[in-house]
Amino acid sequence: MKKNIIKQILTVAPAAILCTGAAAQDYPSRTLRMVVPFAPGGASDLVARILQPRFTELLKQQVVVDNRSGAAGNIGVEVAAKANPDGYTILLGNVGTMAINANIFTKFPVKPLADLMPVTQVVDVAGSLVVHPALPAKSVKELIAHMKANPGKLNYGSPAPSSANTLEMHMFMLATGTQAQQVNYKGGAGPAMIGLLGNEVQVMFTTFSSSVSHVKTGRARMLAAIAAERVPALPDVPTMREQGLNMAVGSWQGIYVPKGAPVAVVKKLFDVSHETMRHPEVVKRMADSGVTIVTSKSPEDFGVFWKSEHERFGKVVRDAKVPTE
User: Fold this and answer.
1) What angle separates helix 299-319 from helix 164-176, to the nearest 10 degrees?
2) Are 180 and 154 in contact (CB under 8 A)?
3) Which of 244, 249, 243, 250 is nearest to 138 (CA)?
4) Which are the contacts of 60, defined by CB distance < 8 A and separation ≥ 6?
5) Please, what's the largest Cα pairwise distance for the chain?
6) Rounded to 5 degrees, what angle do the CA atoms 305, 306, 310 make?
7) Backbone torsion region of residue 71, taken as left when φ is above 0, otherwise alpha when ψ lies between -120 and 50, otherwise beta
8) Prior bond to 109 cis, omega within 30?
9) Residue 176 φ/ψ, nearest 5 degrees
10) First-to-last C-alpha distance (Å) of the chain
11) Alpha helices of the chain — where are they, by DSSP H?
12) Which of 4, 144, 218, 278 suits 319 as a labelling partner, its CA being 20 to 30 A distant?
């Protein structure tokens, strides 16, 4: 009896391995979707639209960008996490959805660290401090003076309570002893930026890529780049550190798949992501938008970085006394 069972296992196992190998070899055989957990107009959507044509070319299958905004990006994360882990749904996650949200939305059913698998980081997006052109401030020092002379009278745009942009504003006000009124926008940085252009809010922190085009056309004024060094897309704008405040919170983004995706699929997406980020047109478009290309050495390396960012922003949330839900 035991011999028959062992014989069956030895007969079936190689066939199962061959089937798994064949499935990985055939991947992908149909359309893929890249879930972006924010509305169009923000940094995540911009990066996805730059990646999409090259991903489509390299994978030899159409890649469709699927904007799923809501709940500070949690809706899109949930869509991706609960998808079939076959590699046909990929998520473009960022620092807010993947490292900050879990420290604030403690009751949300999806836990990124447990329900998603890291593939690779793709970019790091510098931040920016921007104001409406009607505001007289031309520098960070002048903005601080104006806010102290008018405590609580300015409105600042908030893409979500858990966004890096909102945390930066909390950090800024704590460091400078200033006050402003928070105005929340649904959908991410895009809608919040529209609020600033319409003078509904007068100041906000946002990703460089969300503001650079409006700054170039004069519809917004950038007072500082939130980065370690000046950003080539606007080299005349000084960094926050140059103006006396030690702030350099980047908004990294990376590729994820649902937990349980085959190792061969993760490797395929890792390789395609890296080849995409080396393409000259992708490099140029990212640079023109103030986006820095940063890739991981391996999925495991990205996972270590991701966990460290989750822990780092947990401390920021606690120090800034951001309410949890």
Assistant:
1) 40
2) yes
3) 243
4) 28
5) 88
6) 115
7) left
8) no
9) -110, -5
10) 58
11) 2-26, 43-59, 74-81, 95, 101-104, 112-115, 140-149, 164-176, 189-197, 208-216, 263-278, 280-288, 299-319
12) 144
> Which of 62, 73, 75, 66 lies closest to 35 in space, CA to CA?
66
Distance, in Å, from the CA atom of 107 to the CA atom of 131, rounded to the nearest integer, reads: 35
CA distance 37 to 94: 9
Q: Tens digit of pLDDT per residue, the chain (325 long)?
A: 444 544 444 444 444 444 444 456 789 999 999 999 998 888 899 999 999 999 999 999 999 999 999 888 999 999 999 999 999 999 999 998 999 999 989 888 899 999 999 999 999 988 999 999 999 999 999 999 999 999 999 999 988 766 778 888 988 998 899 999 999 988 777 889 999 999 999 999 998 888 999 999 999 999 999 988 899 889 999 999 999 998 766 789 999 999 999 999 999 999 999 999 999 999 999 998 889 999 999 999 999 999 999 998 888 888 777 778 7
Tokens of 177: 């002893």
Q: Give the closest residue to 166 by CA, choosing from 180, 176, 153, 177.
A: 180
Q: Which helix (H) or strand (E) holds 121?
A: strand 116-125
With a CB cutoff of 8 Å and minimum separation 6, the contacts of 299 are 117, 118, 119, 120, 266, 270
Helices 189-197 and 208-216 pack at an angle, to 10 degrees, of 30
Residue type, 126: A
What six digits make up the tokens of 256? 């994820």
Specify the residue for token string 């919170």.
Answer: 249
pTM of the model: 0.81
Task: Using the structure block, give the residue that is written with the tokens 């104006």.
Answer: 146
Q: Provide the residue count of the chain.
A: 325
Place of tokens 């807010």: 96
